[in-house]
Structures are given as C-alpha cells and as structure tokens.
Automatic annotation (TrEMBL):
This is Peptidase metallopeptidase domain-containing protein. Ca(2+) 1 binds at residue 219. Belongs to the peptidase M10A family. Ca(2+) 2 binds at residue 177. Keywords: Calcium, Hydrolase, Metal-binding, Metalloprotease, Protease, Zinc, Zymogen. It comes from the Eukaryota. Zn(2+) 1 binds at residues 187, 189, 204, 214. The lineage of its organism: Eukaryota, Metazoa, Chordata, Craniata, Vertebrata. GO terms for molecular function: metalloendopeptidase activity; zinc ion binding. The keyword Calcium applies. Its cofactor is Zn(2+); Ca(2+).
Length: 287
C-alpha cells in the first residue's frame, strides 16, 4: 500500500491533519506502519477513535524528528521508506526526552545537572559497579570465532575508553554480567521481539541490569567494511543498551536507532560519550 505525500496547507503552513480517506476507513491495527510505530514506542491505541488519529499524527511527527526527517506529521514516502531501513529492535521510547535532558544539562552547567539528576534520575537503569564481565555465548557460523571475539573485545573497549567502566571476558562456565547471544526468529522474548530474518530488526538488548544482547542469526554478518552487516558496529550499539543508554536522535550517534556502515569517522559521537559519562563518569586519569 502506498500513500502520497501531502502538501502543507497554503493558509497556515501547517501540515493537514486529515489522513487519506482510505486510511481512516480501515482498522488502524491492520496497517504495517501502525504496527511499526507501536513496536518502536511511538504509539499505543488508547481512548476514542478521533483521539487515535491525532495521536497517530503526533507519533509520525515524533518518529520523523528522531529519524532526522522533515517533521510534517504526514506519512509520506520518505517516512515509509525510513520504516523499512535496517535498525535496532529496541524501542525509541524516551530517546527524545533523554537527549533533551543531556543537552539542557550541558548548557545549564554542573549545578543544574545535579538538580535535574534528582528530579529525573530513574534508578535501576544502570550498573552499580564499574567492573563488568561479559560472555559471547555463540557466534555466526560463517565467521571465525577468534575474529568475532576480537570484535567483541574492541566493541567493549570503545565504551571503556570514554567512561570509568572496565570489562573482562568471563570464563565459559562461570556467570557473566552481560551475555551476547545469536538467535533465530522467536526466541522466548515475546512475539514483538522475534527476529525477522535478513533486514528489519538486526538485534536488540535490555537495559541494566538484565545484561542480555540478542543478535539476529539470519543477518549476513561480516567484519568487512563493504559487504553485509558489520557486526562490530551492531555489537558496539547493543552494548550501549546493556549499559543503560537509550537511542539518540543526534546525527551520527552510534546510539541512533538505524544501522550505519563502518566508516572512517570515530564510531562514538559526542552524544554517545556524554550519555555514558552521565551514567558512569569519565575514565580515570591514566599515566
Ligand atoms: Zn538500539
Ligand atoms: Zn531477544
């Protein structure tokens, strides 16, 4: 099904609030874009039908803002295309609010930051220790184990380089704080979290202190810059979630929800560094 982009209203410059009539006459829950917005935390059907269409439009605005698209509230081609791009399976809930909080703390300085922390701090979404163990439970068949282990070590190191955290690989039999596992399809995380084959959701992870990151075994994982999905980039992103980071709307952030290729730029943006340091502080001075 395709929707046409709707022009802005001539008089007000605001996007028209009406949906294409074909959309209004259908059960919204049948639409793939509505399921997408629900899965990623932009929309949940509550209240009257009339309220639902306003909520739907607001959900599209919020999705466009987080995705760095022009904010129109209209389900245009660019917005629909964005929904098909490979991404992380974690919802974007709170990413706008958490980002706004980081920015205002940055500009308001340290004292305001401490005040804010008292008001907004959500206890529980961080680790209360700085030395964390991890285990790679399994890995993609096509990739050699030592190379995957190296990528995992480097991905954890990205975060320890810019924070007070330290990571070590747990022995194969003992307990580990963070476990990285490749799964296929439904893997007892609820149907919304079932993996969807190549493309779509590539991986997901849980906030502290569950310590789980799951990767879709059906992706064409590689450690190359050119072909397939670069596992190192996705590992680094999911590890960010296991440390307590939400998605970032900042351009070029590693914690942005969409998959990005491994480029020549630094993988962590200023916003990623700020987010992890807000939780765990800066790295200790090393001589
Ligand atoms: Zn994510
Ligand atoms: Zn899972």
């Amino acid at each position: 099904m395709e929707y046409q982009a709707m022009p802005l209203s001539q008089e007000t410059g605001a996007p028209p609030y009406n949906f294409p009539s074909s959309l209004l006459s259908q059960n919204l829950s049948q639409l793939p874009d509505k399921a997408f917005l629900e899965k990623y935390g932009y929309f949940s059907e509550r209240g009257s039908k009339a309220a639902a269409s306003t909520q739907f439009s607001n959900a599209i605005r919020e999705f466009q803002w987080v995705s760095q698209l022009p904010v129109s509230g209209v389900l245009d081609q660019a917005t629909l295309h964005q929904m098909t791009r490979p991404r992380c399976g974690v919802a974007d809930t709170d990413s706008h609010a958490a980002w706004a909080e980081r920015i205002s703390a940055l500009f308001a300085g340290h004292r305001a930051k401490m005040r804010r922390k008292k008001r907004f701090a959500k206890p529980g979404n961080k680790w209360y220790k700085q030395h964390l163990s991890y285990r790679l439970v399994n890995w993609p068949e096509r990739l050699p184990e030592p190379a995957v282990r190296g990528a995992v070590r480097a991905a954890f190191q990205l975060w320890s380089n810019v924070s007070a955290l330290e990571f070590w690989e747990a022995p194969a039999t003992g307990p580990a704080d963070i476990r990285l596992t490749f799964f296929q399809g439904d893997h007892n995380d609820g149907l919304a979290n079932a993996f969807d084959g190549p493309g779509g959701a590539l991986a997901h992870a849980f906030l502290p202190r569950r310590g789980e990151a799951h990767f879709d075994r059906d992706e064409r994982w590689t450690l190359s810059r050119r072909r397939g999905r670069n596992l190192f980039v996705v590992l680094a992103h999911e590890i960010g979630h296991t440390l307590g980071l939400a998605h970032s709307p900042a351009p070029r952030a590693l914690m942005a929800p969409y998959y990005k290729k491994l480029g020549r730029d630094a993988l962590l943006s200023w916003d990623d560094v700020l987010a992890v340091q807000n939780l765990y502080g800066e790295p200790p001075a090393r001589s």
